[in-house]
């Protein structure tokens, strides 16, 4: 199975060179690896860990009257070599783009997940908000709609098909204002909801801005399991400060308080040093305090390379 998946991925990437005359094709990827000390409740150990490293291709093909075909085929690659099944699917879709926006079919991040923008400063790493919150879903059998921007507002909808007789379909929706990267606007905000998505109903509010050279972000979230009335409320704040052109200091704190107990909280502090536009070295310390599960601590240094 390992050889088959590798062969399929390589064949797709190789084929892209022949399609270049008919469409734009970009091959891209990201390698994120750390050397770290991990303690997941039974004592600490040292490991080399791949954090959502990936490779993919994406592009578009202009048809006529402003209509384009757009596509993406992205794969997660476990570059630490720990897994026998080291290639798995990430976002993979095809769709149409035009003055109406975009419609995408396939496997994709939900509207609620995308609404977080860049507020989670430790996304893909051990401090990722998905460690104690629901809603960070990448799901198959989806239809996604992204509207054009109207007065700096943008709507996104994800329909998740039930895919079987005894399942339920789901809806994820978001309304965002501004630029998530804060390059074209001084403020970013979003509201998003999930209805019966991966077993949960979720509501999320996101905000981000820059104040005196510090990038500040916050997320408030409420989640409830579909087959129960137990509710979990959470809050997360993050901050990033550029000490110099190439050095960023980062920190974030996250909580998840559940009715009747089982509260969770976590914090992460870290630093990034950019060696080039494509490459950075970084370090972080993450700690999670769990009521009904083992506490977790991670101390890591690593490198990220993007191409």
TrEMBL record:
It holds the Pfam family Porin_4. Keywords: Cell outer membrane, Ion transport, Membrane, Porin, Signal, Transmembrane, Transmembrane beta strand, Transport. CDD domains: gram_neg_porins (cd00342). SUPFAM superfamilies: Porins (SSF56935). Residues 1-22 form the signal peptide. GO terms for molecular function: porin activity. Homotrimer. GO terms for biological process: monoatomic ion transmembrane transport. InterPro entries: Gram-neg_bact_OMP, Gram_neg_porin_domain, Porin_dom_sf, Porin_Gram-ve, Porin_Neis. This is Porin. GO terms for cellular component: cell outer membrane; pore complex. It comes from Thalassotalea euphylliae. It is a multi-pass membrane protein. Gene3D superfamilies: Porin. It is found in: Cell outer membrane. Residues 9-290 form the Porin domain.
């Amino acid at each position: 199975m390992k050889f088959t998946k590798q062969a399929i991925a390589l064949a797709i990437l190789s084929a892209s060179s022949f399609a270049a005359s008919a469409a734009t094709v970009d091959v891209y990827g990201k390698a994120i690896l750390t050397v770290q000390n991990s303690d997941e409740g039974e004592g600490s150990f040292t490991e080399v860990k791949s954090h959502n490293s990936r490779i993919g291709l994406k592009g578009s093909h202009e048809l006529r009257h402003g209509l384009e075909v757009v596509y993406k085929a992205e794969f997660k690659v476990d570059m630490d070599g720990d897994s026998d099944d080291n290639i798995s699917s990430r976002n993979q879709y095809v769709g149409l783009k035009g003055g109406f926006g975009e419609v995408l079919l396939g496997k994709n991040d939900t509207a609620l997940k995308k609404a977080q923008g860049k507020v989670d400063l430790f996304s893909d790493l051990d401090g990722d908000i998905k460690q104690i919150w629901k809603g960070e879903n990448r799901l198959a059998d989806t239809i996604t709609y992204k509207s054009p921007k109207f007065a700096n507002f943008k709507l996104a909808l994800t329909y998740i098909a039930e895919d079987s007789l005894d399942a339920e379909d789901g809806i994820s929706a978001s309304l965002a204002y501004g630029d998530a990267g804060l390059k074209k606007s001084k403020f970013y905000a979003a509201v998003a909801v999930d209805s019966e998505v991966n077993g949960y109903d979720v509501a999320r509010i996101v905000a981000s801005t820059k104040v005196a050279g510090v990038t500040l972000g916050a997320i408030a979230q409420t989640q409830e399991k579909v087959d129960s009335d137990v509710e979990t409320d959470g809050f997360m704040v993050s901050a990033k400060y550029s000490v110099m052109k190439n050095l960023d200091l980062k920190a974030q704190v996250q909580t998840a308080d559940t009715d009747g107990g089982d509260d969770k909280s976590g914090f992460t502090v870290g630093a990034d040093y950019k060696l080039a536009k494509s490459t950075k070295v970084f370090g972080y310390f993450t700690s999670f305090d769990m009521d009904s599960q083992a506490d977790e601590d991670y101390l890591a240094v690593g490198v990220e390379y993007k191409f």
